[in-house]
């Protein structure tokens, strides 16, 4: 029977060479061969092809006192621009990258979390993209692909937002809507897949075999990496840790089930917990979630006792729910990301590290690490740009179908 | 960097040919080529080698009216015997198999669940093995390997029972103890890995890409298969679904944490639930767990109302906890096994199927199936025999180190 793989980075020689250059930066043929495990002869042949195709260029030539001069190769950054878009319930972040995934420009458009119309959301995405293109000194003609992360359940193979609970969206053909509005190739996926890919390319995933990249924001979830490969699941929905149980028959979650982790660790969950502690707390008067989280961080800095209790309970919930991930998957790394993490990690992470051993089976504990993500910038936008780039590389002189990433399809062209 | 794999069945041609014969039964070279995806020429070469080595023999020769006669090949069942041992808290099941994993003889020795000494448990294992060998009309000299499943956390690479909560065992070198007592090569692993392998070889795993094989007994847990490969985790502890949360700060679990799934769905959990419903129920007077489960099944058949409420609550707990597995892993199949399943599946499975959609995100629900395992006999013993056989095949004319299964080691020889 045919073997199938979940790898988004395929073990294909041409792709491996290009990916090595992302990981290593400008490199010699010898360094590429060592990194990829390909033979020096294979690397030399492929590099010659890439140079003739204009995909690679020579970055530097160095001369030692003895021996031949050696060349450092790099992907030609002039080959195009990539957009990575993080669409959340409360904002759209857009970043323009070159093909080395260096950011050139960015923008943010706030969304009203109480609006849910398709036109409202698409308009916000388009405005963010236009502003990012202007900020990056780029033109739309230079953009080779747009990777768009949509909240909730997404089928990248169909370009569909299957279910976005906060907006009550069902089966919205978002990729076609965006491709039409933008006149650009669009690839949609889910933020959990994007954050996992950003950690695989630029974070602890470069050296880690298994990890969960845990997002804490309006929604919560985990990008799961097993044996260096992104876990997608049968319908791209793996990682919905936010919809595993913390408390059977507990708080009503926006997914409709009771007791989900998200009902305690999503921003609405934090608001509910604070209301249980002090229903008149001033932070609860913030109309939008980012304002609430900022007020919590401010209050914790000032030593507000109700917020200290909120941090204590939230850390307890988080340690317990992360313990479940470790016990089920026996992963070695947990990386926390998302805007709640960015605001509150100094209160949450030490407490979680302290409590986690109480929740994890002893044999799964050795070498377990929990830390905030060190991926620079917005990891969702970066991961989406990396997905889009994987597909773009598939068209960059990589004629063989086998070299396309495992998503098994090309970018949807504008209609 | 070197790539690592979690596959216990390696994509290695010689192993693939042998494994195809397990899956297909006696087969022609053409059928093997079709099943493995190897070229007919490669299969012909490997079969010739195996025949000359005595690993394979010709099972039948058939003659059509036209064309050449064709041979059906089989692994020579005379090449040895394999023991598969399921050690649980309450019993030891031992089965003798031929190298086609057909059972030849078996035995069961009951263990007192209140005893935990190493000598007591090892004695029980040895008695079960001796009785199975006698029942199978086999001699100890014919046994080529013994696969032993131990409850709790096991490191097969070290042959150690890391933690067995019911016995309070820590870092017991069980493999060496058994190899010394038996004078036979021993391989130890965990029942969750064994049930997953038995489903991969003989159950729904033959046609399923991803599944959880859920064991319900004294302990509960899941053998997880992702992309047709067994998920082991960093320290072989993946699948400890029994120690994920059902109820934060809920019932005390024997692992020391509060609120674990096992505290509700393990047999002790069922006893606790029944005691909450009717503390004087006669089923609670059974001294040993198998007697309790049998009494529950009997009572349900008779329409006992307290036991009907026990089944209702247990199904609710099970549906919720299985929902977590689906939401996190987005698997397509759940197979239930274990002796609680064997006794109570007719009450639990229909109720779980009915409630599960309430716990699963809509995008993860299509094509989800929940059913009792159809693997014949004891799946833990069968899976352990399959592990042992994988290692035995590694010595059966398979000289190349690359053909060994991914556990990366040979059987521990007797000391």
UniProtKB/TrEMBL annotation, chains A, B:
Database matches in PROSITE patterns: ROK (PS01125)
Keyword Flavoprotein applies: no
Family affiliation: Belongs to the ROK (NagC/XylR) family.
GO MF term list: kinase activity
UniProt source species: Kribbella jejuensis
Pfam families hit by this protein: ROK
Database matches in InterPro entries: ATPase_NBD (IPR043129), ROK (IPR000600), ROK_cs (IPR049874), WH-like_DNA-bd_sf (IPR036388), WH_DNA-bd_sf (IPR036390)
Record-given protein name: Putative NBD/HSP70 family sugar kinase
Superkingdom classification of source: Bacteria
Record flagged with keyword Kinase: yes
Alphabetical UniProt keywords: Kinase, Transferase
């Amino acid at each position: 029977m045919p073997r199938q793989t979940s790898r988004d980075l395929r073990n294909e020689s041409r792709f491996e060479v290009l990916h090595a250059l992302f990981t290593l930066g400008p490199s010699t043929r010898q360094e590429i061969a060592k990194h990829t495990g390909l033979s020096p002869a294979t690397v030399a042949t492929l590099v010659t092809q890439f140079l003739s195709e204009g995909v690679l260029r020579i970055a530097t030539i160095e001369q030692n006192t003895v021996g031949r001069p050696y060349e450092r190769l790099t992907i030609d950054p002039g080959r195009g621009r990539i957009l990575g878009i993080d669409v959340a319930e409360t904002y759209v972040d857009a970043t323009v990258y070159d093909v080395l995934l260096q950011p050139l420009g960015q923008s943010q458009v706030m969304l009203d979390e109480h609006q849910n119309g398709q036109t409202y959301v698409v308009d916000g995405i388009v405005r963010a993209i236009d502003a990012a293109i202007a900020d990056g000194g780029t033109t739309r003609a230079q953009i080779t692909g747009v990777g768009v992360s949509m909240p909730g359940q997404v089928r990248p193979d169909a370009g569909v937002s299957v279910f976005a609970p906060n907006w009550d969206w069902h089966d919205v053909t978002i990729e076609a809507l965006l491709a039409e509005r933008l006149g650009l190739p669009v690839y949609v996926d889910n933020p959990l897949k994007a954050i996992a890919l950003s950690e695989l390319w630029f974070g602890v995933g470069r050296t880690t075999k298994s990890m969960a990249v845990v997002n804490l924001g309006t929604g919560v979830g985990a990008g799961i990496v097993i044996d260096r490969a992104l876990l997608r699941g049968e319908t791209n929905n793996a990682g919905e840790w936010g919809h595993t149980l913390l408390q059977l028959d507990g708080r009503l979650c926006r997914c409709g089930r009771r007791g989900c982790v998200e009902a305690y660790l999503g921003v609405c969950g934090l608001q509910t917990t604070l209301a249980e502690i002090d229903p008149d707390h001033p932070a609860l008067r913030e109309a939008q979630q980012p304002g609430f989280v900022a007020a919590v961080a401010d209050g914790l800095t000032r030593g507000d006792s109700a917020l200290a209790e909120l941090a204590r309970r939230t850390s307890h919930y988080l340690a317990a729910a992360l313990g479940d991930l470790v016990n089920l998957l026996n992963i070695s790394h947990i990386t926390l990301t998302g805007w709640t993490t960015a605001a509150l990690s100094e209160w949450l992470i030490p407490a979680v590290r302290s409590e986690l051993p109480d929740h994890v089976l002893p044999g799964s504990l050795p070498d377990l690490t929990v830390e905030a993500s060190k991926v620079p910038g917005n990891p969702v936008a970066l991961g989406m740009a990396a997905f889009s780039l994987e597909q773009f590389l598939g068209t960059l002189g990589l004629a063989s179908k086998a070299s396309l990433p495992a998503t098994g399809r090309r970018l949807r062209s504008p209609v």
